[in-house]
Amino acid sequence: MTLEEARSSLEEGDLERAREALQRVIETDPTDASALVDLGYLALGAGNGNEAAALFRQALEREPGNIDALRAIATIHGRAGRAEDAFDAASAVAEAQPGDPLAVLELAELALDVGRLDEAASAFQRLRSVDDDPSHEVYAVHGLIEVELRRENWRRALDLAVDATRVDRAGRTTDILAYVVAQVFGEADRDMPERAEVASALERSRDEHRRLHLEAW
Amino acid sequence: MAQAAAPPKPGTDVQWTRCPSCDAFVYYKRLQRNLGVCPECNYHFRIPVATRLEQLLDEGSFEDLSGDLEPLDALGFADSKPYAQRIEEAQRKTGYREGLTYGKATVGGKPLVVAVMNFGFVGGSMGSAVGEGVTRAAELALEQKTPLLVVCTSGGARMQEGCISLMQMAKTSAAFARLHEQGILVVCLLTDPTYGGVSASFATLGDVLLAEPNSYIGFAGPKVIEQTIRQQLPEGFQTAEFLLDHGMLDLVEPRENIQNVLRKLLELHTLSEDGLPETEGADPVTDPDALPKRSAWDIVQLARNIERPNTLEYVGYVFDDFQELYGDRLFDEDAAIVGGVGRLGDLSVVVIGHQKGHTTSEMMERNFGMPNPEGYRKGMRLMEHAARFGMPLVTFVDTPGAYPGLGAEERGQSVAIAESIMKMSRLPVPAVTLVTGEGGSGGALALAVGDRVLMMENSYYSVISPEGCSTILFKDAAQAPRAAEALRLAAADLLHLGIMDAVVREPEGGAHTDAGATAANVKTAIVSTLRELVGTPVDQLLQNRYERFRKFGAPGQPTLPPIEESE
């Protein structure tokens, strides 16, 4: 059984046959990183996270730069709440794929998750240049606002919120700006949202940005 | 918590991608094989232009004519980057000169002009080159008299081109208007997302609007609306399904079906006017005395029999092909009236009819065959479709009446019925009506201003229900059978009066006892009637129709002898 045959089963959606074929490929050649990765994704799809992680780690031992394995490892760590490990894996992905906006976005998000605000700011800044779709600029600025809100750097957050309003066609920034204005001047010209609402709006913005990149194949 | 994964990109080693909808990892080639639809949750990924063309068109048939479309930086615009630089970057990233590709192709061997928008190119925004490409495609379709397919996806007008971009809405809409005037089929396939200046111009001006499941389609984005009205929007707002429910789309079809639907639409819109099929049913009856004697009340009961065949069932039996189309394009999809384009032999016709059901839930879904104004407005939209493409109209009438409801009145029930009657009376194509069950007053007449009006042997047609008449004039609801006789609502009397031109035979126990045999008679009646009408010059057709209805109530018309009291 060859890797091509296994992949043909994967392509046809015959996952059981693909799994058997991949296992045989690995029995024949335990160093085949691609087969390990494919088997890892099948395990992940079947809900066997630990088995999947072990397979991806084996793949990375054989081929340290395997992007599919690195992404999967970051996902597994992320889903399991191991943000630091996820951040390390995402850093490796972003380093290997410096022009990929999604890789940079996910690194930035994980940096926020683990409280590495400088790294988050730097990643969101980088995102502004690697994502060449002008309608996406607002998402990166929203990321930078989140960083400044966490730093309680209200003046800088205000500058960014004004900046975001300029590039925001969909009115996502209105509440965020109201909140920041109130922090800076002590009052706003409209009902001020809670910090949690602002955080939630900014998180939705990041989700939307990620989705935009995921759905374009 | 963030999760890392990325879509595979051409030229990379990435083999697995994550579905943004269900979060499952999918083998990339499996996703490709599945037309870019997640095999786990049916999420429709955005697909590149080349893939879209491959999926929709006959292999190797596409001739690209968009090579000389060039972006125009008429304003010298710059935000954080000069517009010209953004365009260069988009060109580098996508490999396309602009956000629109158009050309000639075939689908199922039928020629068409196709234009496909590219969401990957500056968010599918419509600048001058996109508008120019869509317009050229429309002009080419007009010149060659071939249908036009436009695959739409866009965030809206391109801000960086200012009012030049805005003018593309007018330019493209005007080009589509010329296609409508010439009866050239325009199909718009709306994909995720279609917004702003594109949805408010050519994308929604097709004769048929198709959309992929879960595509987001609207004018203003949901965030803008939420911010404006300060309310959370309902689940599914602005999805294709939401729009279908609100009458704005004809069809929502999964990607795997779209080529077939397109092929069918092209076939239905390119048939010749001759070639009506041979039929085997009984000829319709024009002599009232040849009809079996049955009490009016018995006929009312048979007409209301819940097992009686309904419009969609007759369509299935009678027509060789049929594509149902939905929505009034104004407010709602009313399931009490159905319609679409069908084929009788080699003749394409538009079919419209009231629709009931056989079970309580079906009846509720169809509002017991009682249309709201939206149903009549859908009917009128389809009448216009018939006129535009020179297709005869066949209507099936089976309603207790138009829906007497608060909302129906608020949205202009009377206006809708009146306009439908007027529109049908001047429709420049042959129109044949068949009353298949209940012909309830104005709600029935709205679909019954045909050149020929036929009825089934056990159907009735009346200005009011026997129960209503009984209550109002006989002051007793129990007198409904007597009222039914007095109203002269059955086929024999209506033939005498000239309200009906012919009557379609039913099996002895009624149409429901042998739907197949009944439908054969229906087919014969419709085909033979169309044979008489097709080819009649439009002026003559309209004059004859005018006179057909002008005569009622005029002096010298037939009357019926008084009913003899049986007791």
Question: TL;DR of this structure?
Answer:
The complex is a heterodimer of chains A (217) and B (567). Chain A has two domains: 1-80, Tetratricopeptide repeat domain (Serine Threonine Protein Phosphatase 5, Tetratricopeptide repeat, Alpha Horseshoe), CATH 1.25.40; 99-217, Serine Threonine Protein Phosphatase 5, Tetratricopeptide repeat (Alpha Horseshoe).
Helix content of chain B: 25-40%
Gross morphology of chain A is elongated
Going by CATH, what is the homologous superfamily of the largest domain in chain A? Tetratricopeptide repeat domain
Residue stretches of chain A low in confidence (pLDDT < 50, at least 5 long) are none
Give average pLDDT of chain A, whole number: 92
Low-pLDDT ranges of chain B: 1-9
CATH class (first level) name of the largest domain in chain A: Mainly Alpha
Largest sheet of chain A: none
User: What is the level-2 CATH architecture name of the largest domain in chain A?
Assistant: Alpha Horseshoe
- Helix segment tally of chain B: 21
Named at the architecture level, the CATH assignment of the largest domain in chain B is Alpha-Beta Complex
**Tally of separate helices of chain A:** 12
Order of helical and strand elements of chain A? HHHHHHHHHHHH
Please explain how this structure is put together.
The complex is a heterodimer of chains A (217) and B (567). With 217 residues, chain A is an all-alpha fold. Chain A folds into two domains: 1-80, Tetratricopeptide repeat domain (Serine Threonine Protein Phosphatase 5, Tetratricopeptide repeat); 99-217, Tetratricopeptide repeat domain (Serine Threonine Protein Phosphatase 5, Tetratricopeptide repeat), CATH 1.25.40. Chain A contains twelve helices and no strands. In chain A, helix 1 (3-12) packs antiparallel against helix 2 (15-28), helix 5 (67-79) packs antiparallel against helix 6 (83-96) and helix 6 (83-96) packs antiparallel against helix 7 (101-113). Chain A starts with a helix and ends with a helix. The relative contact order of chain A is 0.07. With 567 residues, chain B is of the alpha/beta class. Chain B folds into three domains: 16-45, no CATH class; 47-268, Alpha-Beta Complex (2-enoyl-CoA Hydratase, Chain A, domain 1), CATH 3.90.226.10; 308-461 and 495-546, 2-enoyl-CoA Hydratase, Chain A, domain 1, CATH 3.90.226.10. Chain B contains 21 helices and 18 strands. In chain B, strands 3, 4, 5, 6, 7, 8, 9 and 10 form an eight-stranded mixed beta sheet that branches. In chain B, strands 11, 12, 13, 14, 15, 16, 17 and 18 form an eight-stranded mixed beta sheet that branches. The longest helix of chain B is centred in the N-terminal third of the chain and has 20 residues, at 162-181. The interface between A and B is large, with 57 and 58 residues.
